[in-house]
Amino acid sequence: MAFDKVADISEMSMQEELKQVIYVSEKTDLSDDSLTSIFDASQRNNPEKNITGCLLIGSNSYLQLLEGPTVAVEELYSKIKIDSRHKNVKKLCEQGIEEKLFSSWSMKFTPFNNLDWSNQEFESGNFLKITSEGSINVFHSINRLMTG
Ligand SMILES: Cc1cc2nc3c(=O)[nH]c(=O)nc-3n(C[C@H](O)[C@H](O)[C@H](O)COP(=O)(O)O)c2cc1C
Fold first, then answer.
1. What tens digit of pLDDT does each residue of 44-99 get?
2. Which of 109, 85, 105 is nearest to 29 (CA)?
3. Closest Cα to atom 9 of ligand 1
4. Angle, helix 70-81 to helix 32-49, in steps of 10 degrees
């Protein structure tokens, strides 16, 4: 019994700290090729870094949630920030988390018109003026839709 408890505690302390980053950016390339190559990179790289998340594809913008071990998320965000397929990358949220929202997705790609919006700008796929709180709510609703 006592031994089990010690094992539990040491396992907990070995778990990596998780972080979540959400950003919004402006597309510079509206082609499908761009999306395909972003998708390929996420499927190739994210699993080995234990990164998961969701990329919301707007008409003129991207809204992405990255989650995973702190250092891995920071490294990926630095890489993504300088990617020329988008510009004006603006961080909306950066926080430590206990649990992932998209734990079974290397990166869930979600087209904006798959969702119900009650906001005209978002309805048209423009996320550039979304607030930090708004962006968190969007990903929580996507998560709720998935889990029913
Ligand atoms: C909107 C957007 C989202 C991206 N998401 C990811 C991602 O989740 N994972 C990833 O590895 N690269 C992502 N990228 C691509 C990275 O910027 C970078 O090109 C890629 O990680 C390089 O991969 P490589 O080192 O395997 O060539 C994204 C790029 C953009 C523009």
1. 999 999 999 999 999 999 999 999 999 999 999 999 999 999 999 999 999 999 99
2. 85
3. 42
4. 160
Q: Is the CB of 61 under 6 A from ligand 1?
A: no
The CATH class of 17-147 is: alpha beta
Please write the tens of the pLDDT for every residue from 97-135: 999 999 999 999 999 998 889 889 999 999 999 999 999
Beta strand ranges found along 15-60 (DSSP E)? 18-27, 52-57
- 36 C-beta neighbours (distance < 10 Å), count: 10
Instruction: Tokens for 46, please give them.
Output: 């994210």
Which amino acid residue places its CA nearest to atom 20 of ligand 1?
41
**Domain regions of the chain by residue span:** 17-147
